[in-house]
Amino acid sequence: MSNLIQNEMMKLLAKKRLLIIGIIVGILVLMFTYAQYKQVEEQREKLGTDDWRTAVQQQIIDTQNRLSSSRMLDEWREQLQVTLKQQQYYLDHDINPSEPGAATFTRMFLENSIDLFIPLLIMIVASDLVSSESSQGTIKLLLTRPVKRWQILLSKYITLLLAVSLIVAMTAFLAYFLSGLVFGYHGWNAPTITGFGINGGEVDISQVRMVQQWKFLLMDMGLVWLVAVVVGTLSFMLSVLVRSTPAGMGIMLASLISGAILSNMVSSWESAKYFFMVNLKLTSYVSGTAPPIEGMTLSSSMITLLAWWAIALLVSFSVFTRKDVF
Fold this sequence. Notes:
The protein is mostly helical. Helices cover 69% and strands 4% of the residues.
């Protein structure tokens, strides 16, 4: 098995996918770092101070002004009401929600990347692990080796898990290292609030607690890794079912984009909570953002994703061990 995994890793590295992904992440991190820096500068010029309390007070005023609009959709109004109460909580308890530093930037980058950007990176690797072998005909040579089919597929899946772990770690490292050049390599021990709950459109602060940012960041990375594994497994299944790599990538891309759209539009469609793409933003539960559909929780979303993961894995191995190769 170790030889099979080593062989699959060598093929993956030979395609230079991980290098390309690293370059893409690096470029985007630099872009977002610059955008964040410009935002901080504009805010400083607008408010005439670096005091974060003044900035939060201005955010509260802006949120209140937006809530005064009569043309706002109910789900957006609910989200703004939650945001307003969170901002007021930070101000009342003297906690800076955007403590400057690379650690804060990394946390925010991961939270904003979990439902689309990182899944797209994983899709690049997972979508052709099997389909490329089928389309090029090399799968025939692979199956002539004195090993069982399930072992061959398992070696490919273990390679995928290693690639997923490497991509998540690489994304966090590049976000921290590159943003630190501008914001400084600090903020690990900054107080971060978690435990905000949403109950009937109201913010429940009974479970709110303060943790150091490095612990919060580890929680975020764990949730990002889980989402990446689920998306990678689904892409892996498509790679087994569909011989064409572009077709498999197109199906997964359409699913991810539709999920990003549905998350903002399905508040009244309760059964949509069983779609995997509506449950990808797990970090929103930790930060206290209102879920796409009322009643959704971190546990329910994780269970839904794990169910999709198990089904995708079962289908992949069932089909691969039985399909005819021609």
